[in-house]
Structures are given as C-alpha cells and as structure tokens.
Amino acid sequence: MSFLARRTASALPKARLFSTSAANRSSFAKMTIVGRLTAQPELQATSTGREILKYGVATDSGRGDNKKTSFFNVTSFTPEGTQRDFIQSLDKGTFVYVEAEPSMNYYQDAEGKNRSSLGLVQQKLEVLQFRKREEGGASVAE
Predict the structure, then answer these.
(1) Whole-angstrom Cα distance, residue 61 to residue 70?
(2) Suppose 122 and one of 26, 51, 76, 112 were both cysteines; which one would form an S-S bond, judging by CB atoms 3.0 to 4.6 Å apart?
(3) What is the full per-residue pLDDT of the chain (142 aa) written as tens digits?
(4) Domain count, the chain
(5) β-strand 68-76 against 51-61: which pairing, if any?
(6) Which Pfam families does this UniProt record tie to the protein (predicted)?
(7) Cα–Cα nearest to 98, from 51, 17, 32, 7
(8) Is residue 11 situated within a structural domain?
(9) How are beta strands 114-129 and 68-76 bridged, if at all?
C-alpha cells in the first residue's frame, strides 16, 4: 500500500457508518411489522392529557389450513402536525411497514392473575399500498 493510501485510510473516522443509533447505547430491541391496518388510527388522550395515536396491524403467516393471523397494537407519539394528520387519515386495510420499539408490560388483571402484553411504540411508518376509494367514499383494496 502506498504512503498516501495508508495515511488516508488511517485518517478515516472510527465511527459506525452503518447505524444512526447512538454509539453509547449498549442494547435495544426493534420489531418490524408488515401488514394491514385493522381500523383507522385513533387519537387518544393519556391520563396526563398528552395526545397519542393508536392503531392495529394484522399480519398473516402460513398457508391454507395452517394460515394464522396475528394482531399488533401500536402507539405513536407523533406530534401534532401534517405527519400525524397523514397517519390519522389512513383507512382500514392500508398495507403498511412499521418499525417499532417493543417492550413487555406485566400486570395483574381484575381477578388477580398475572398477565403480560407486548407494547409497541412506532419509530417509523411507511405506506406500501393505499386503499382505493370508490365513488361512494368506501375503501377497497387496490
């Protein structure tokens, strides 16, 4: 290797160019969901008055008699503005790609039984296929 090539190579930053995550974050979990919205996203208020969006995504796996559908509830903390308005306007059946940060929540139900649920906080949402609107305003799959 020439002197100039070695000098250029050693001058390159020692950063992780493949990731935009913080370098000091030692562990994390990420979940990717590709499926259809189960209903139009709903705006809800938390106990502190903060507005959040909640929506469900259905995914299918298997074929024929082995076909199973899984349902995932997603929470979005997208602030008020055009992005939140866009998410709210999506119709049931819209085909979406969602990246979310999962967390396990543990609690006791009204009968005192220990329960758990998977919490998903949206990090990214992309529409893969919109629902096509008919003349009467109803949506149908494209």
Answers:
(1) 8
(2) 76
(3) 555 555 555 555 555 555 555 556 678 899 999 999 999 999 999 999 999 999 999 999 999 999 999 999 999 999 999 999 999 999 999 999 999 999 999 999 999 999 999 999 999 999 999 987 666 655 555 4
(4) 1
(5) antiparallel
(6) SSB (PF00436)
(7) 32
(8) no
(9) parallel
Provide the β-strand partners of residue 25: none
Instruction: Provide the 3-class DSSP secondary structure of residue 86.
Output: helix
Q: At residue 35, what is the residue type?
A: G
Q: What is the 3-state secondary structure (H, E, C) of 10-62?
A: HHCCCCCCCCCCCCCCCCCCCEEEEEEECCCCEEEECCCCCEEEEEEEEEEEC
CATH number of the structural domain spanning residue 76: 2.40.50.140
Residue type, 19: S
Query: Nearest CA to 142 among 99, 91, 97?
Result: 91
